[in-house]
Amino acid sequence: MVTWQGINEFVAVAETGSFTKASERVSASTAHVSRQISILEERLGARLFLRTTRSVSLTAEGKVYYQHCRVLVEGLKDAETALTDLREMPKGTIKLTAPVTYGEQVIMPLVIEFMAQYQDVNVEVVLSDKPLDLVETGCDLAVRLGRLADSSLIAKKLATRKMIACASPIYLTERGTPHTLSELEHHNCLCGYREYWRFRENGTERNVRVSGSSAVTVGLHSVMQRRRG
After folding, report:
1. Which in 14, 30, 173, 214 has the greatest CB count within 10 A?
2. b/e per residue, 152-171, with b = 16+ CB within 10 A?
3. Residues 6+ apart with CB under 8 A from 90
């Protein structure tokens, strides 16, 4: 099994030519550095350094080992730097979905403002009144209307909306004004992906099916917006 034990200390000694200077680089005692090198040499079954009272130099095996370890240590530094840069300046792609109307009126202005601030972030927006599966569609964020069905999702309330049932004066003149919820099935009701309208009657929620023969189905609208660098 590959282990990192002693690698940082070994590279530090190889590059500084001193156990004392290496200990300063890795923020450890000289004894710790020496002990880690000894453990590393024992594990490898090879002598990595030639030690004298005045100098420390790499052996032939040590030079070969150093060339490989140097790449590993630099790669690790690059990986840590990449994460630091990512935290300081966001990069990558964000994909989100939102209802059409709310998305156009509220979400898109915020997206445009966000893109202007973080120009290295690519944003994809899918506007649809039908709830999309976040895993299946690869969406990172979703703005949903109504109650959260999947309790495994982390949700935060953004706003409160109030819906009303309404009709144009011309329609009411031609078709009459309904006085009870049960009369809605005889009217031309607009419905989307749901087959019902939700009402609160005497303090209790009630779903009234409106997708009968007189219903007018509104097709779902999907839009994807992508920012190109």
Report:
1. 14
2. eeeeeeeeeeeeeeeeeeee
3. 118, 120, 121
CB 63 within 8 A of CB 103: no
Q: Which CATH architecture has domain 7-88?
A: Orthogonal Bundle (1.10)
Record the pTM: 0.47
Strand, coil or helix: 21? helix
**Overall fold of domain 92-160+221-226:** D-Maltodextrin-Binding Protein; domain 2 (3.40.190)
pLDDT tens readout for residues 78-113 = 888 877 776 777 778 899 998 888 888 888 899 888
Q: Could you tell me if 189 and 162 are in contact, meaning their C-beta atoms sit under 8 angstroms apart?
A: no
C-alpha neighbours within 13 Å on the C-beta side of residue 56: 19
